[in-house]
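Exercise 3.2. Students should predict the tertiary structure of the chain below and write it as structure tokens, then compare their answer with the key that follows.

Predict this chain's 3D structure.
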Amino acid sequence: MDTRFLAFTILSALSAGIAGCNPKASVTAKTATSVKTVTTTDPSWPADFPLPAEILAARTNVSCRLMTETDPMTGQPGTCHRIITPGTGSPASLAMTKFIGTSQGVQPGHRICLRGGDYPYSRLWIEATVGTEAQPVEVINCEGRFVIGNAVDADSNGQVDNSRGIEFHGVSYLKLTGSGSKDHYYGIRIDGTSNGQSAVVFSDLSTDFEGEFIEVAQSGFAGFMAKTDGNCGDTDPNNFRGGFVQRNTVFHDNYIHDVEGEGFYIGNSFFQGRTSVSGCPGVPVFSHPLVGTKVYRNRLERIGCEAIQVGYSSLTEVYDNYIRGFGRSPFADYQNNGIQIGGGTSGRFFNNYVINPDPSFEVSAGITIIGYRDTWVYSNVVVNAGTGIYVNQAMGQGQDGQYGPYSLTLANNTIVNPIGVPGVGGGKGIHTFNTAIPIRILNNLILLGVPESSTSLSNHLLVNTIYDHKSGFTFWGSGLQGPNHTVSGNLRGHYAAEKSAYFVDPDQENFSLLASSAAVDAGIDVSSHGLSTSIKPDHPNFRTLNRPRIRGTAIDVGAYEADP
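Answer key:
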């Protein structure tokens, strides 16, 4: 894959991540460690999560029989229009299976079945397979779980070169689903890819696609990659490859763990143009836009760089994702964030749970916003990040140069123990590096840690709660408004001293509110801003989220709404 560089100049060591991580980069973060330490063999839901049995109960086993055949068990015709049975290779020889839909006569509404089984050292390439909005093509596992990949030895680097898992080229209106087995929650598993290679890839002008019920383990780069890279002909920012737009990229109910790069790498990192394309160095090459991206109800664990990164996407929704462990092996500084809202990206980012489980491990921000105008970040829980939420200096940059009336709203987030640098401190709750755009900061609950060298708890909380680095201005209370910032309804405190007064069971990562918490009924009304739901207290079971606000006399501060 192409070498990647930072999209913007880093103006301060306090800046959060800018571009995606690069497995071939020469700069390695001081805290980098290999993430390839765990091999999961459980074919269904992780043991520490409640099993959503209602979904398995509603499934039927898909048999690997063509429409022209009769299933001897049911006496009914088969349900597959085409069946793919990959070959298997060895550590020295990769088995490549290519399926070209136009050559195979695939039509809208057809079902392509992936025969269940284990296919080590195998790679599946699906090309020119096109459905319609009303009749998408379905790619589904049949007769059990479908496992493909490198069969990577966690303690070895002896991987086959150029091995991905499943890749799609020039497809549209296609759904990849692991829902073909009643016995496996994740019916498709990508079991390792070679160094620098992603597990599930959509490229070459692919659009309108979906991926669900898929497990990715030990990918050499990203879990899911979804974008088309520009080339030297793409120098017009308004006319990438004839005006291509990647629409309706949807990934949900997937499990991604122990990957070297991002969990989800969606869209390009270089909104302002990339000047390092081979063949035309120094010439800005532009990437295509995305519209209607949705990433929801995924579980991500032990991710090398950003868990979720979305670039140049409008009408975006990222919600109900559980992220535990990110930035575990970044290949350059500032590429170890939980969620990165990349350049040119706007939309809603809500009800996500982002935790760095080891506060002695240095990561950047739980949520980093480069973004664009009309972006909403609300009802998220961020735990033990270097900074809770970071707004980059490039936020709002775009070709039209227009903003507002509010380019960014940060509301009802719960930020717990931002650690800064482990052993040193300095972690900030909300840290902005941008006074050029209007930012609305409402009803956030921020409980900060305190460095050992701190002599003034109150000053520490004041400086680090809500801070704009560019202006040197600290925002607190209704009387302290910046030139474009509106700050109201927020609560601050000291995590170690006050966590038991706010949260039900913080030591077990339950940050729902006690009925006696000072956050209950303490917020300002934000219903007019479209913020009408909260995380349900039985989080992190993401099957039952989004219960209404308000449940008492007023809205609560933070991501949770307590029972009255």
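Discussion points: The CA atoms of residues 7 and 270 lie 5 Å apart. The chain has three helices and 43 strands.
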